[in-house]
Amino acid sequence: MVKLAANLSLMFTHLAFLDRINAAADAGFRGVEFMFPYEFSADEIAARAARNGLEIVLFNLPAGDWERGQRGIGALPDQIDECRRGAAWALDYARRLGCRRLHLMAGKAPADPRNRRTLVDNVAFAADLFAPHGIDLLIEPINTRVDIPGYFYSTSEAALSVLSEVGRPNTKLQYDIYHMQVMEGDLARNIERLLPEIGHIQLADNPGRAEPGTGEINYTWLLPHIDALGYSGWIGCEYRPAGDTAAGLGWAEPFLNQTG
Ligand SMILES: O=C(O)C(=O)[C@H](O)CO
Ligand SMILES: [Mg+2]
């Protein structure tokens, strides 16, 4: 079964954040993800999701000063304390929200030995903090060609080498099909090969990062294929709708019906 989650940081953005939860449920989603919940009360988010029968499937650890261009701090030696306080804050939210996956963003930093050591240690710290609560820690290679130039890892191989050095069973790859199309292509074969390492998938079309059907990726074929490979996790719709979010959900109807 293809399980789609609405990404509330990018979808239904004409509504206030909490109201996006209702909109996602009304559109037929059974799961939601978002970047950062921290300016809202965890109890309010949890109550709203519960009332709408929605599972909260993923959000990010605090990622530094986003407004000033930071995109995570996991690999930044000067912000180790902040990263670890953020891991504890994220865990508190995740427990209240019943969320089982948290994404740690590495940030923009060259892949030199000091930054890598910092990242490996921070990922290990957070994974160990989350493990007793049944929570997985995810890292996601992000394309450096269009979206985040200078991001610490932009290929599945680079992210997996970090996870293998960390060596914790509750660390997984967040495979964002959009980023991986930009950096690697050969999506079906790569997803099949990486499946045992993948803890969460996200999607958008390319170019433009809008909904499936607006670009070059054949999601009509790829989503059932991923399902047939045996992937049973969530697929987050992390795209910027080309127009009205609900009006652009035609592509998702067969899959939203499946989760209903
Ligand atoms: O940029 C992305 O693709 C992500 O998934 C980051 O977590 C930002 O939400
Ligand atoms: Mg993503």
TrEMBL record:
EC number(s) given by UniProt: 5.3.1.35
Domain of life of the source: Bacteria
Coiled coil residues, start to end: none
One Gene Ontology term of the molecular function aspect: isomerase activity
Enzyme class of the recorded protein, top EC level: isomerase
Record key words, sorted: Isomerase
Keyword set includes ATP-binding: no
Family under the similarity heading: Belongs to the hyi family.
PANTHER family the record matches: HYDROXYPYRUVATE ISOMERASE-RELATED, ISOMERASE
Name this protein carries in UniProt: 2-oxo-tetronate isomerase
Recorded name of the encoding gene: otnI
